[in-house]
Amino acid sequence: MILTRMALLCLGLSVGPRTQVQAGTLPKPSIWAEPSSMILWRSPVTIWCQGTLKAQEFRVDREGSTAPWYTMKPLEPGDKAKFPITHMTEHTAGRYRCYYQSPAGWSESSDPLELVVTGFYRKPYLSALPRPVMTSGGNVTLLCGSQEGFSRFILTKEGEHSPPWTLDSQQHRSGDSQALFPVGPVTSSHKWTFTCYGCYRNSPQTCSHPSDVLELLVTGTADTISPSQNKSDPKSGAANTISPSQNTSDPKGASHPQDYTVGNLIRISMAGIILVALGVLLFQVHHSSRGTHDAARR
What we know:
Layout: H1 2-10, E1 14-15, E2 30-34, E3 38-40, E4 45-50, E5 57-62, E6 70-72, E7 80-85, E8 94-102, E9 105-106, E10 113-118, E11 125-129, E12 133-135, E13 140-146, E14 152-157, E15 165-168, E16 170-171, E17 177-183, E18 193-200, E19 203-207, E20 214-215, E21 217-219, H2 257-297
Parallel strand pairs: 3-10, 12-21
Antiparallel strand pairs: 1-6, 2-4, 4-7, 5-6, 5-8, 8-9, 8-10, 11-13, 13-17, 14-15, 14-18, 16-17, 18-19, 18-20
């Protein structure tokens, strides 16, 4: 029991008596993690829980844990509380939910927040198909893959509190494990920066180092299309998988083939005209020389 309390103090959380929280009729709170729900091993993370302005107390629990409730008083103006974890490890990873208490009783539980600890395996690669440059309103497929044989991949978007996208991996003919994440429609009014991670099925909350950051470049006028509506199906995670080596297109080299054809035709025509002119000139010189020679013989 003493070790349990010391561990909770290291998390920066106060310990309250274990009580039953009955789901009430109050709106359920929102829960999110800062800076992200994907946290490098032994790095800090803060769980936020937001309810109503009449909230008097907030509590958070971890799924499957027998530890006491973690309790916090609301911060000003009184509708949310934060629960800091000073050192993220595999022991603090898991699914979290929060509740709040008001004069009307306890709220419903929040949606689950899954905290994942990263930095255990080599980073995967991340690329955009067909390329990371597109016009506003378009769609793109992000390919996350690795030679490590991961069971699933997780894709995160910078600046969002919404849950990351998770897909089961499929094996490519190259031997890599890969997953395809459809993203879009994209708009120029948002920033589209992504990172992906690889995980194994037997330890889904301990994942790899993050991939290199991939930023999509969106051109054109911003429109009213909502940002990413990625409703991907895990079963289609690797359909028509393309090797990342194919994603090497350069936007500057994306001119149409017919541009080169027209140029070649112009060059050929000019060469033909020059050859004809040279032929005519040679004929005239030869004819003039022959006429002079005949005149001299007479």
